[in-house]
Specification:
Structural class of chain A: alpha+beta
Largest sheet of chain B: 6 strands, mixed
Oligomer: heterodimer
Helix content of chain B: 25-40%
Strand content of chain A: 15-25%
Distance between the termini of chain A: 33 Å
Helix content of chain A: 40-55%
Low-confidence stretches of chain B: none
Number of strands of chain A: 12
Low-confidence stretches of chain A: none
Strand content of chain B: 25-35%
Mean pLDDT of chain B: 89
Largest sheet of chain A: 6 strands, mixed, barrel
Radius of gyration of chain B: 18 Å
Radius of gyration of chain A: 34 Å
Number of helices of chain A: 14
Order of helices and strands of chain A: HHEEHEEHEHEHEEHEHEEHEHHHHH
Shape of chain B: globular
Structural class of chain B: alpha/beta
Chain lengths: 415, 233
């Protein structure tokens, strides 16, 4: 590789045609630039979408009930389906081995929460301790609800961060203070944050048992939320959650005499399925970006290849002389390839550095809903470098082949 | 040194086949200085190209220094050219962006000689042709005679068995031609075999043997009394 003579020759050839080499290089540089920027944006979209999914545990199954929409077994449509504690107990005991986190939820939408003179209307949810993990909630202060609170019907509450900042204006620590929910005193035991942001933090959690008793819920529950144990790969996880979800649905439909094709009465939101849709979309986009980027590079390669053909043509005589003096075909091929790889690599690195600089400095400023922090990781950068070298080799190959096939006798006759 | 037997060569141009060499038999001994003469189209350049392994004969045998030259692929041909032959062209064929020294060193590069050693050898040959002071000059900074002397130095650099010169003085005025021929005679005096293709009679008279080609056959092959080039200066 390190051969002074050959390097000299390359510089010689390049310096004779600075503008031409520059323009050729520009096409390769812009090809790489576009590829890297596109990949960066693709990564940004991935980041953006992933952060959308951070709201809840990624593999959460969320079930809620509504009114029946179809007549079934002599029962009229429009029946409101309400699940009971028994349903939850049955499901959790039947699927004990599969379930990772589980919670039933009792909810009132507009609970008035007071602290001294401040008050606000928030979602009030009665939940099980596991709900912290289902919601991906993090504790800012204090603790989450535990089973003891639940068994003892404790009047305790965990506030969302937003609720805390609304009610506790002077920044005091709310833990241990009492707030009123529907004029009943609850002791604050913790403050949670949620990656879903303010909307998710505008909630307060009570123990499920307490909420049912205080708000006259009886045995009623409004929602069920589950996660399954993690699987080794996405496909298995998806299959397991789909199986669980369909069994759950058919069990409840039989029990409450709901038509099997009634989609209104029971709805299950399987976040894994949603995720799959997004991941599929993202893969498509990524594929598309690679495609566009590669096509741009190909345009660049064709440019380099063209120029190398012209260079070979121009140097036909020189190649003939070299051959007459004893140059083997291989040494001619290496000479042309070397120049081509050199030009593409230098140009490509320039494009790579410019695009990386752009992503580095401008990337963090981009923060829209679906694109956040477009960036490119090391392995992708290395991949593009490989692409460059291969591109240079491809660009140089045909001209080099042509050069190697030049017959010295023809070349020397070429006056 | 060179022995060819029953050498045939024809070119096809479209539907026409042009029989250029029609069975040449020809021997060259070590240390000869031969001129090959003939009008254009007589086949003399074709003969030189075959001798130079730039082209291959259709029929017949060619032996160079005891080595049969046949079934050459490009790689072997290149190696043989480098090892056995030195070329001198009418139009010099120096590489324009390399200086005189690098041009002379080029055959050694293809022999795999290290750079420093290669430049030393090249310098000694430049000295031989009297151009040490022009070693760093590019070809377009040299006169025609100087260029041809650089080319001769280059042809000698790989220490070949045979020098093949194709109209070496074709692009030079008569005085420069004489200087170049003097140089060639001097090299021959040291025992090197040289073949010159020319159509100039006075150049041919400066060799030791004249082979005349006409329509693809040798019509005349005579030894001559060599005229020293310097006597013409």
């Amino acid at each position: 590789m390190f051969d002074v003579e050959r390097w000299q020759e390359i510089f010689e050839a390049i310096s004779k045609n600075k503008l031409r080499t520059f323009l050729t290089g520009l096409s390769v540089a812009s090809g790489i630039f576009i590829l890297v920027i596109l990949l960066g944006i693709g990564e940004g979209m991935r980041n953006g979408i992933s952060s959308e999914f951070e709201n809840d545990a990624a593999n959460i199954l969320y079930l809620w009930t509504g009114a029946t929409s179809k007549e079934y077994k002599g029962l009229n449509p429009g029946r409101i389906i309400t699940l009971k504690n028994d349903d939850y107990n049955f499901i959790t005991s039947k699927y004990e081995d599969e379930l990772e986190y589980k919670s039933s939820i009792y909810r009132i939408w507009n609970g008035i929460v007071n602290y001294n003179k401040e008050s606000g209307s928030y979602r009030v949810e009665g939940v099980w301790p596991d709900y912290q993990f289902l919601e991906n909630a993090g504790m800012v202060n204090g603790r989450f609800i535990n089973y003891k609170d639940h068994e003892n019907f404790e009047k305790v509450v965990v506030l969302g961060n937003k609720v805390k900042s609304d009610l506790f204006k002077n920044g005091e620590n709310p833990v241990g203070k009492y707030v009123q929910i529907s004029n009943i005193n609850f002791k604050v035991i913790g403050v949670f944050s949620d990656p879903g942001g303010e909307r998710e933090e505008s909630r307060v959690f009570l123990p499920l048992s307490t909420s049912q008793r205080v708000f006259n819920g009886g045995n009623d529950i409004r929602n069920l939320a589950f996660t399954l144990h993690k699987e080794d790969n996405f496909e298995d996880a998806l299959a397991a959650s789909e199986k669980f979800s369909s069994e759950l649905e058919s069990h409840l439909k039989v029990k409450y005499s709901i038509a099997p094709d009634d989609t209104r009465a029971i709805t299950i939101n399987n976040s894994l399925e949603n995720a799959k849709r997004f991941y599929d979309l993202m893969n498509m986009i990524k594929f598309f970006f690679w495609g566009v980027g590669i096509c741009t590079i190909i345009a660049g390669i064709v440019g380099v290849s063209n120029i190398m053909l012209i260079i070979v043509k121009e140097r036909t005589r020189e190649i003939g002389i070299r051959k007459a003096l004893g140059a083997e075909p291989l040494s001619i091929i290496v000479m042309v390839l070397h120049e081509s790889i050199f030009v593409t690599t230098i140009a490509g690195f320039t494009g790579l550095i410019f695009s990386l600089a752009l992503l580095e400095f401008v990337g963090p400023l981009i923060e829209t809903q679906y694109i956040s922090n477009p960036s490119i990781n090391f392995s992708v950068a290395i991949t593009t470098v490989f692409i460059l070298v291969i591109a240079g080799a491809i660009a140089g190959f045909f001209p080099a082949w042509k050069a190697a096939r030049i017959k010295p006798i023809d070349a020397l006759r070429n006056e | 040194m060179i022995e060819i037997k029953n050498l045939h060569k024809s070119y096809t141009m479209g539907n026409n086949s042009l029989h250029v060499l029609k069975g040449l038999d020809f021997k060259v001994a070590q240390g000869e200085l031969i001129s090959i003469m003939g009008s254009s189209g007589s086949g003399k350049s074709t003969l030189l190209n075959i001798l130079g392994m730039l082209d291959e004969a259709d029929e017949g045998t060619y032996t160079l220094d005891g080595v049969p030259i046949k079934n050459l692929n490009e790689k072997i041909a290149a190696r043989y050219r480098n090892k056995f032959l030195g070329f001198i062209f009418q139009s010099f064929n120096l590489i324009s962006y390399k200086n005189a020294l690098d041009n002379v060193a080029l055959p050694l590069y293809y022999q795999g000689v290290k750079r420093r050693e290669r430049l030393d050898i090249a310098m000694s040959y430049l000295e031989k042709v009297g151009l040490v002071n022009w070693a760093g000059h590019l070809p377009n900074e040299l006169s025609g005679g100087q260029k041809q002397r650089v080319a001769i130095a280059r042809a000698l650099a790989s220490n070949p068995k045979v020098l093949l010169a194709d109209e070496p003085t074709g692009a030079l005025d008569s005085q420069t031609s004489n200087e170049v021929m003097d140089l060639i005679q001097g090299i021959n005096d040291e025992g090197r075999t040289i073949l010159i293709v020319t159509h100039e009679h006075d150049i041919a008279q400066m060799t030791k043997r004249i082979v005349t080609l006409k329509d693809g056959v040798i019509t005349d092959d005579t030894k001559v009394n060599q005229v020293r080039a310097l006597s013409n200066v």
